Amino acid sequence: MEQILIVEDEPKIADLLQKYLQNANYRTHWLNSGLGVGDWARQTPPSLILLDLMLPGKDGLEVCKEIRQFSLLPIIMLTARVEEIDRLLGLELGADDYICKPFSPREVVARVKAVLRRGQIMPSDTPSMAIHSSPKTALLALDRDRLLVRAGQQEITLTLVEFELLATLQQQPGRIFGRDQLMNKVYTDNRIVSDRTIDSHIKKLRKKLSEILPDQELIHSVYSVGYKFEV
């Protein structure tokens, strides 16, 4: 049975989430502080973490950053702060999804199932696979299991969103993808995000790629249309 770790400092919310998740046949564990979450996740890795943004001891973004240093387990952030900067910062640190308060516990269960299904598309015991669609894309090797990109002896780690963007663009070099197309590829749960969100991820992705290929520009902007991958 899959286990969900709930990190939430409001007992009523935590109790409600536990009841609904248990009714959906998940095991649950509750922590009411950001302190100690990383150690608990190391010792007893859950299937997914529901992580509140505003926590005593250590806030949710710091907890997410700590966990991403040693694990890619799914994280859904719970937040009452809906400003775009919080959403972008959370995604850059590796959060897989957001749920804004107030929320329906049924929606939380649905989001949990959706994120876990995405993780099952390529299970962890599947051999790592480098994507080489053509000689044009052989410059990079993508390791989906570890969210790594390698160029020669250099490698970088991407967030899940950055990896999916790069994989989508690289598989069809020269093709121009509109922002809406990229959003549909990356956010398969039909959440609503702005064009600026895609632009922000592309900017971060370019910066990371420049660390391993400083003399190459791989992702090109096409004015008023979108982006394409081209060496």
From TrEMBL:
GO biological process terms held by the UniProt record: regulation of DNA-templated transcription
The OmpR/PhoB-type domain, residue ranges: 128-231
Residues bearing the modification 4-aspartylphosphate: 52
Domain of life the protein comes from: Bacteria
One Gene Ontology cellular component annotation held by this UniProt entry: protein-DNA complex
DNA-binding region: 128-231
Gene Ontology terms, MF aspect: phosphorelay response regulator activity; transcription cis-regulatory region binding
Keyword DNA-binding: yes
InterPro entries to which the protein is assigned, alphabetical: CheY-like_superfamily, OmpR/PhoB-type_DNA-bd, Sig_transdc_resp-reg_C-effctor, Sig_transdc_resp-reg_receiver, WalR-like, WH-like_DNA-bd_sf
Keywords: DNA-binding, Phosphoprotein, Transcription, Transcription regulation, Two-component regulatory system
A Pfam short name: Trans_reg_C
SUPFAM superfamilies listed in its UniProt record: C-terminal effector domain of the bipartite response regulators, CheY-like
Response regulatory domain ranges (all copies): 3-116
Protein name (Swiss-Prot/TrEMBL): Response regulator
Species of origin: Thiothrix subterranea
